Amino acid sequence: MPKTVCAIIACHNRRAKTIACLDALKHQAINEQSVSLRVLLVDDGSTDGTADAVRAQFPEVEIISGDGGLYWNGAMRLALSHAVKRSPDYVLLLNDDTVLCHHAVQTLLTTACRVENNHGSQAIIVGATRGSAHDGISYGGLIRGPWWIPLRMRKVPLSDQAQRCDTFNANCALIPSAVIDVVGNLDAAFTHAMGDFDYGLRARNLGCELWVAPGIAGECEANLGQGLWTDKSLPLSTRWQRLKGPKGLPPREWLVFTRRHSGPFWPLYWLNPYVKFWLNSIMEAWTTQRPARGAR
Fold first, then answer.
1. Rounded CA gap, 278 and 280, in Å?
2. How far apart are CA 168 and CA 198, in angstroms?
3. Which of 67, 177, 230, 238 has the fewest CB atoms within 10 Å of its CB?
4. pTM value?
5. pLDDT value at position 295?
6. What does the alpha-carbon distance between residue 32 and residue 34 come to, in Å, rounded to a whole number?
């Protein structure tokens, strides 16, 4: 029997990117006699014609409609809950702005088989991505910092060999059904971000392994923070609201994450980004005003 892979994708008003992602997925170099690939897309209330374009160009893609308030984690939770009902051997988590290389899916599957054969266990296999400038890894596997900085993450460097990691960006990640049976779905405690980091860390805590596949799986531009709370071109009040908003570090969600993954000193890690935000803001304001005072 062929191995069955269900790719799940969430999208919202990025029609061109979504179409490019699906096109690359459709043209993967896989042996259809040994691998069966199906695609499940959650269109979270797009108003730019994404769903109609997908139906026209990729009629084989199953589309689930959202109301526009799911955000990434909610949409992927919905997609994963539908995917497991199809009883696939693997679920492929994929961002709609990720364009896979021609052999990406086959490389992920090959790595999964090698890890299982060599280590006796099924594992999450992460695909690394890079931006169009090819100036380093944009997303992929992550290694936790030293014990005294448990939430600091660094990217696993590019290699031609599979490498272990502690958690992952879900821009491209292959999860065996056996791991899903142990870990379950993405946690509903999170709205947008943190869901993938949390999933990987929970998987590790439950005894599952995580590996980064060799090479590059595809292209995905790194989010440089434009329009987010780190964007210093925005007014301070706007940045503060976005820090607390769904795409920042909502206090209740950040509390869940820090309490779960940062050890006995979690209150300090929970407070850190909010305190740091205001301290940096005060320093920025002070630095900006100093030249004006000197000129007088």
1. 5
2. 9
3. 67
4. 0.94
5. 47
6. 5
